[in-house]
Amino acid sequence: MDHALIRKVRLFDDIDALSHAAALKLVESIANSSVPTFSIALSGGSTPERLYRLLAGDYAREIPWHRVHLFWGDERFVPPDDPASNYRMVRHALLDSITIPPKNVHPINTETDDAATSAALYARTLREQFGDDLPRFDLNILGMGDDGHTASLFPGGAYLENNDDSLVTVTQAPVAPHTRISLTMPVLCNARTTIFLVAGQKKHPVLKEILDDPNGSHGRYPAAMVEPRGDGELLWMVDQSAMMG
Ligand code: 6PG
């Protein structure tokens, strides 16, 4: 398959410059959108935390939070107050500092008997918000692990074949916390705008492969498989250390 996808790449000196640019991109995307509510799928991990703090601080007054709905691209199957929780990270970095209607915040419920139940509940949440069509986020913020994973979709995962129409899946991460809940690849590929935030030297080898060899890397790395359908925009926002090694 020829992946003629044009990946737009913007290079920044460091994660602070990258995060400010990502915040501006988010402000502009919301301002330019004609939809009544603007849906964002948030990434976990450490890279986006600076962005979230900027959205809670410098840029908070430029965002009509009453129009914004926040979702999570993935979650670790831990309690919401666990230090490893992506929800907890976003709560501390963003939610505790902004005024957003609680009904606009859609965390993945991990206070269930098992991860499969959490995944099923989140799929129901998505259908309630997006109807029976494949969910289409206005903005999908993604990170990339140094193994090329994104959200909680890891290289070699059978779920990458995604022969069914599941929206949310349970995966096992190579590092603790092992059990994760993640949006599936079809959902990740359906966003209007997808932004990858990649920073740090350890990301360089895989990032270089993906940008230099889109076809070859497409089969190896979930991050390379995110190819927005149709008119979807894909933007890689990377810092010098990730790009140059
Ligand atoms: C998670 C994220 C994950 C993250 C990458 C990069 O739950 O950890 O969703 O996909 O984006 O692992 O993580 P860092 O930003 O910490 O390098």
Compact summary:
The chain has 245 residues and is α/β, with parallel strands linked by helices. It is built from nine helices and ten strands. The protein is globular.
Describe this structure in words.
- With 245 residues, the protein is α/β, with parallel strands linked by helices.
- It has 9 helices and 10 strands.
- A hairpin with a 6-residue loop joins strand 7 (168-172) and strand 8 (179-183).
- Helix 1 (15-32) packs across helix 2.
- The longest helix has 18 residues, at 15-32.
- 6-phosphogluconic acid (6PG) binds next to loops.
- The site of 6-phosphogluconic acid has 15 residues, from loops.
Mean pLDDT, all residues? 95
Continuous helix count: 9
Q: C-alpha Rg, in Å?
A: 17 Å
| DSSP strand tally | 10
- Tell me the major beta sheet: 7 strands, parallel
| Dominant shape | globular
Name the hetero compounds present.
Answer: 6-phosphogluconic acid
Percent range for helical residues?
25-40%
Low-confidence stretches: none
By helix and strand content, what is the structural category? alpha/beta
